[in-house]
Amino acid sequence: MPLALAVLALVCLASLAFGARPIPFDTLVEALTAFDPANGDHAVVHSRIPRTVTGLLVGSALGVAGAAMQGVARNPLADPGILGVNAGAALAVVTGIYLFGVAELTGYIWFAFAGAALAAVVVYVIASVGREGATPIKLALAGAALTAGLSSLMNAILVSSQDTLDAFRFWQIGTVGGRGWEAVGPVLPFIAAGLLLTLFTGRILNNFALGDDVARGLGQQVALSRAITALGVVVLCGAATALAGPIAFVGLVVPHVVRAFTGPDYRWILPYCLLLAPVLLLGADIVGRLIALPGEIQAGIMTAVIGAPVFIWLIRRRKAAGL
C-alpha cells in the first residue's frame, strides 16, 4: 500500500510537469509551494491541476466501480458497458445536444449522469423479473440488450444531425483534458459518495463470489446487497462518464492486475483499485501528451492502446479469467 501511494504521487507530479511545455522539478515545487502569478511556468502548473484532479477522480471511480461490478455480476469481463452505463450516458448527451442545444461541458455532465443512472436502473429492473431475481447472467444479458437498443437510437439521431455529431464526438472520445473546476465541482460529491459506499462492500462481494445460495445461507440478503452495490457502481460510473466521457479498459484491466498480488479478497481489491486505477489513467494521459507534440492524443484512446495488450497478456498468462 505505501508503494502504491508513492507511485500514485509520482504519477501526479509527472502529470503536472509533462506536456507541450515541460516544467523542471524545482520550478514545479516552487509553483506548488510559492505560487507567483507573474511566472509563466507557475501558471502552466496551476492550469494542469484540474486535469490531474480529474484523472484522479475518474480513475479512482472507474477502478473501484469495475472491481465491484465484476464482483456483483460475477463476470470477469464486466465494465461500465455491462449495465448500459456508457450507452445511457451517451444517448442522454446526444438528446441534450439535439433537443435542448446543450453546448457546454457542464450541461453534458447532468445529462450524462441522468442517462447513466436511468439505464442502470432499467437494466436492474429487467434482470429482477422472475423467481431468481437479478442473477449475473440476467444482468449481463439485460445490459447487452439495452446497450444495443440505446446505441441504435443514438446513431439514428447522429446520422440525422451533423451539428449534433460534431458536438458529441469531442465528448465521446473520452478525455481528462479541458476540464476546469466548474466541471469537477458538480461531480465531486457524487464520486465521493460512491467511493464511500462501494469501498465498504468488500465483505458483500466476497460472499457473492461463493454463489448466491451460499451467500444466502450465510445470512446475507442477496437482493438488497446486490442493489446497494449496484447503486454505488452506478453512481461512480455515471459520474466518471459524465465528467470525462466513456473511457474503456480502466475498470476492466486494473482489478485483474490487482488480483495478481491481493488474491480474491475484495476488502483488499477495492482499496488497491482506488490507488492504482488513477495511475493507469494519468499515465495514459501523460503518454498521450508526449507522443504527439505539439498536439496530444486523448486519454480515452491511450487507455485502450495500453490496456488491451495488458489485458490479453493477463488472460494468456493466467490461461483463464475467473472469479
UniProtKB/TrEMBL annotation:
Localisation per UniProt entry: Cell membrane
Biological processes, Gene Ontology terms: siderophore-iron import into cell
GO molecular function: transmembrane transporter activity
Keyword ATP-binding: no
Protein name stated in the entry: Transporter permease
N-terminal signal peptide: 1-19
Transmembrane segments: 49-69, 81-101, 107-127, 139-159, 187-206, 227-249, 269-287, 299-316
Record keywords, A-Z: Cell membrane, Membrane, Signal, Transmembrane, Transmembrane helix, Transport
Assigned GO CC terms: plasma membrane
Family: Belongs to the binding-protein-dependent transport system permease family. FecCD subfamily.
Main location: membrane
UniProt key word Cell inner membrane: no
Membrane topology: Multi-pass membrane protein
Organism this protein belongs to: Arthrobacter crystallopoietes BAB-32
